[in-house]
Amino acid sequence: MPNNIRIQPLYLPNSNDPAQFNIAESDWRYPGMIGGSCTFVFGAGTAADPKASKNIQLVRTDSTMTTAPFNGATAWWKNRLTYQTTTATTNRGQVAGVYLGAVTPGRLAIIQNGGRHPSVKFVDAPTSTPDATGKIVIPSATAGKADCLAAGSASTYPPMGVTAGTYDAANAQCAVDLAIPQVF
Question: Given a cut of 80, is residue 148 above it in pLDDT?
Answer without folding.
Answer: yes
